[in-house]
C-alpha cells in the first residue's frame, strides 16, 4: 500500500504514485495528463502528488473543471490563475491588457488569440515561479471550458525551460481538448483482481463469500464501486454498522479523497450531464440512483435544498474555492449530509465539498423540476452582477415566455461573442428565442442564432435552428439566409442561391419595411458575396438595379461593399478614404463586419491596414469555434502576405486556410485557398505545382459558374507561363481575362493583370496592343484607385513609352511612389524593365544598379524564374556573380538583435513582445535585413549569422548579443 498525505492508504497504486511523486518533485518544467474512468482514484492520486510537491518546496495551485461553468469562456483559466493575481501587476502593460480583456467584467474587450494569451500565461507563471517552483493541478479537466483547455494545452507544451509543472486529470470516457493536446499521459487502470480483493477486505471485512464475489464482479476493479456497492446490496460491515454510513465511505481508499473527483461511469454506469441551463440530459442509471439516492432521500428538506443549490452552482467541487472571485454559493448547515457520506469538509476553508461529482449528479437528478427552478432563481439573484452566470441561471429558472429574460440572454450572447465564444452565443440566442413572447421576436432571435452559427462554420446547425412554422412566409427570409449560405459556401451554388436571396429581399421590401432589420442587411451582404463569387456582369447589374430601387434600405457600408467588390475600376473612386477610416476602429466590430471591410480593403489594395487586427484575432476565431470567420481571415492574411512578399509565411497561411476550410466542409473556401496557393507557386517559379492546383480549381469552379475562382485560376496559369518565359501562352491567358485596351466589367482580375498583359504582348511582338492597354489604365484613372494600381500603371506606361523622356518620367513615378515598397514583386519587375531600358539607351554601367536591385529582390522573394532572368540581364550588362553579398557590418545593433532572435525560431510577434515593438515593425526590419545578409528565407538566418561570427575575430554587433545573453 502507498501511504499518502494524511496517513491514508491507496491499494494497488504503487507504480502510479511512484511516477507521480517523481513528476511532482523533479526540477524543471513539464506537463502530464492523468487519464482514467470515474472512481478509479485520480483525485486521490492528485492529492498525494500535490502533498509530495509541497513537501519538496513547490507551491501548489489547484483548480477543478465544473460542468456548470463549461459554457463560460475562460472560467477554468480564471480559477487556475486567480491565486497568482498579485503577479499580474509586475508584467508589462501589454500582458496586463491581455489578462484584463479575458477576465474583465462581461468581456468588455475582444478576447485575444490562444497564442497571445498563452504567452501571457507563460510569462505570468514564470514570474510567479521565480520565487518558488510551481505545480499546477487541474482535476476534472474534461469539464474545463473550451477556451481554457486550449490555453492550458498551449502552455503545457512549452513548460520545459521553466520551474513550472502542470498535472491534469481527465475522464477516459469523455472527450476533451486534452485528448489531442499532445501532452504526456499516465493511464490509471482499474485495480487487478488481487488488489480489488484487498481493498474490499480492508473497508468491508467479513462479507460472505457469495456477496464478495458478486461485488468484485460488479465493480470490475473500480475502487469507488468497491467502496459503495456493499451498502447498495445491503451488506453490513463486521461491527454491524450500516454500510451506507461514513464508516463505509472509504475515506482512505482509492477514489475517495473528498474535495473533488472525476464524474463518469461506475462499472459501466453512465453519468448524465446537464446542459447549459441545468436540464438533465438523461435518467440516472438505476444502480447509481440507488447508491446515492437512498442517502439523499433520508436527508431533511432544508439540507437537500442546500445540496441542490451547491450542485447547480458548481460549489463544493474544487479545492481552494475561497480563491475564486465573485459570489459563489456556499452550502450551510449540511452536517447531516457529511454524516451520510455525501459531503466532506475542506480542511483548508471549512467549506462543504461534494464527496464525488456523482453525488452532485444524483442530487440534481432527484430534485423535481420545480425545486430546480427555485434553486436557479436564487442563484440568478446571487449572480445578478455577473451577466453570463446571471443569464444561465435565469434562463433555467424561467418556464413561460419572458421578454426581460430573453433580452438578458441576448446581452449574454453579445458578451460571449466578444469573448471569443460563438458557440456559447448560439446557445444563449436559441434559449432567448424559446422565451420570446412574440413570433416576430422568436424568429429574429433564431435568425440571429443561425447567423452566428453560420459564421462559426456550423452551416447545417444554422439551417436546423430555423423552425418549421404554420405561416412560413414570416420565416422565409431567415430560412433563405441559412439555406443560401449553406448552398454557397459548401456547394458553390451561385445560381439558385442568388434567385432565392433576391426573392426574399423583394418580399421584405414589399411587406412595407421602412427601416432595414438585421435579416434584410444580412441578405444584402449575402447577395453581394454571391455576386462576387459569380463574377458575372448580369448578376452585378441586377444588384446595382436592386440597390437603386431599395433606396434608404441599403446602408452606407453595403454600398461601399457593392462598389469595391463588384468593379473597382468603375465604382471604386472615393471609396478608399472610408475604408481607411474604418481600419482605425476595428476592435469594437463583430468579426463578420471586420472581414467584410477587409475584403473591401483588398480590392483597394489597403489590406495591410487590416492585417495586424486579423492576425491578432484569427487564432481566437478558429480556436473558439468561429471556423467560418477564421477561414475568411486566413485567406485575407494570405492575400496580403503574397502582396507584401512574405511568401514563406504565405505558404504556411495558405495551407492552414485550406485545412480549416476542409475541416468544416467549406468547399468554396477550400478552392479559394488552392487558387491563391496556385498563384503563389507560379510567382515562385514552382510552375508544375501551380498548374496542378490551377486545374483543380478550374475543374470545380467552371461548371458552377464561379467567375471569381475561374479568373483566379487563369491568373495563376498566366503567371506560371510568365515565370517559364512562355509569353504566347501568357498572352492567351491574359486576353482571356480581359481584352487589350479595356478592363472587362466586373472582372476583378482585369486591373490586377495589367502588367502581365503588357509584358506578354511586348514579348510576342504586339507592341501596339501593349501600348493601348497601358493608356487604357491611365485613362481609367487607375493610379487614383490604389497604390498597387498606380505602380502597375506607371510601370506599364514606362515599358510602352514611345520616347525616352516619357519612359524615364514614368519609371520615376513608379519607383518613387511612397507605397511601392509594400509591393516588392511588382516593384522588382518595374526595376528590371527599367534596367533593361537604361542598358539599351545609356549603357551597361548605368543599368547595373537597377538590374542588381531587381535581381536582389527576386532572390529574396524566392521568385526563381524572375531572378534568373534578372541575373541574365546583369551578365549582359557586364556584371557577373550574385547580385547580393553578405554584409553583416551594415546591420544596426537593433537589426542584429532581431536577426538573432529570428534565427532562434521566434515569430515576429514573439520578437516584438521581447523588444517592445509591433510585429509589423519587426517584419519591416527583416525586410531590410535579408538583402544585407544576401539571403531570401528566414531559415537561412542561423547559418549566415554563424558563418559571419566564425569568420570575424570580433562579432560586428557584439554588444547587443552579450546583452541578450
In short:
The chain has 965 residues and is mainly α.
What do these coordinates show?
It comes from Catenulispora yoronensis. Among the domains are: 13-187, P-loop containing nucleotide triphosphate hydrolases (Rossmann fold); 193-248, no CATH class; 269-362, no CATH class; 387-571, Alpha Horseshoe (Serine Threonine Protein Phosphatase 5, Tetratricopeptide repeat), CATH 1.25.40; 888-964, Winged helix-like DNA-binding domain superfamily/Winged helix DNA-binding domain (Arc Repressor Mutant, subunit A). The chain starts with a strand and ends with a helix. It contains 47 helices and 9 strands. It has 965 residues and is mainly α.
List the helices and strands and how they pair.
Elements: E1 2-3, E2 9-10, H1 14-25, E3 30-36, H2 42-55, E4 59-64, H3 75-81, H4 93-103, H5 114-131, E5 134-139, H6 146-156, E6 164-171, E7 185-187, H7 193-203, H8 209-219, H9 223-232, H10 286-297, H11 301-312, H12 335-339, E8 343-345, E9 352-354, H13 357-366, H14 369-382, H15 387-397, H16 403-418, H17 422-434, H18 439-455, H19 459-465, H20 472-491, H21 495-510, H22 518-534, H23 537-550, H24 556-566, H25 568-571, H26 576-582, H27 591-603, H28 611-623, H29 627-643, H30 647-663, H31 667-683, H32 687-701, H33 707-724, H34 727-737, H35 749-752, H36 754-763, H37 767-779, H38 787-799, H39 804-815, H40 824-841, H41 844-861, H42 864-876, H43 893-903, H44 908-915, H45 919-933, H46 941-951, H47 958-964
Helix pairs in contact: 1-2, 3-6, 4-5, 5-6, 8-9, 10-13, 11-13, 11-14, 14-15, 15-16, 16-17, 17-18, 18-19, 18-20, 19-20, 20-21, 20-22, 21-22, 22-24, 24-27, 26-27, 27-29, 28-29, 29-30, 29-31, 30-31, 31-32, 31-33, 32-33, 33-34, 34-36, 36-37, 36-38, 37-38, 38-39, 38-40, 39-40, 40-41, 41-42, 43-45, ...
